[in-house]
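We were asked to recover a plausible sequence for a given structure. The inputs and outputs are reproduced exactly as logged, with field labels preserved.

PROBLEM: sequence recovery
POSITIONS: 205
GIVEN STRUCTURE:
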């Protein structure tokens, strides 16, 4: 794979603490599963170069660590030059799903440019502990007009598919496209319009 002049793509992982942002980042970038790490304030990121459509894409995956009262300001600091957002919840934690409304509101008031968004339910390997149904996730994705995945960082389920979708959604700077790459049971794709800046933004969130 050629590494000269790669296309930079910054993607931010957004959601409540313990939804699995760090595990997702490590699984995709390092090919490993790590379930926990100490919680700190700030942001860290990892990079991975992939080749797609005869172009080298250098994907930056940013993990924002949550701290009550501080996390919103931390996220706002790192939104500039962000091309994509993975909005995450834990399928075994109802509160993390219910809190998505606050994250979406925050994105609406903070983002100044169109951003591609994917809705992601994590920990799909814990089916016996599920509190949020797949249909609820699909319904929210339909309401938002975005692509939806359920993933498992532990079982490496739909990880590559999720980030492939993000690259495809953001690769064309003139607009967005739909993605149909994951299993039908865990992914629904919604086409986003290639119209004005305002239209693209309103369709994302």
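RECOVERED SEQUENCE:
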């Amino acid at each position: 794979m050629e590494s000269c002049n790669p296309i930079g793509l910054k993607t931010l992982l957004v959601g409540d603490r313990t939804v699995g942002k760090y595990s997702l980042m490590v699984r995709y970038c390092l090919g490993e599963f790590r379930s926990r790490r100490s919680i700190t304030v700030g942001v860290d990121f990892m990079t991975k170069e992939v080749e797609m459509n005869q172009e080298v894409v250098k994907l930056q995956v940013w993990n924002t660590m949550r701290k009550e009262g501080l996390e919103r300001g931390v996220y706002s600091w790192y939104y500039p030059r962000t091309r994509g957002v993975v909005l995450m919840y834990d399928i075994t934690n109802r509160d993390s799903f219910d809190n998505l409304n606050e994250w979406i509101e925050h994105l609406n008031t903070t983002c100044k440019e169109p951003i591609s968004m994917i809705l992601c339910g994590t920990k799909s390997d814990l089916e016996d502990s599920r509190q949020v149904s797949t249909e609820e996730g699909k319904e929210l994705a339909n309401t938002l007009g975005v692509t939806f995945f359920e993933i498992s960082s532990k079982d490496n389920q739909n990880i590559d598919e999720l980030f492939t979708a993000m690259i495809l959604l953001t690769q064309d700077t003139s607009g967005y496209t739909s993605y149909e790459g994951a299993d039908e049971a865990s992914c629904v794709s919604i086409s986003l319009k290639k119209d004005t800046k305002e239209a693209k933004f309103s369709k994302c969130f």
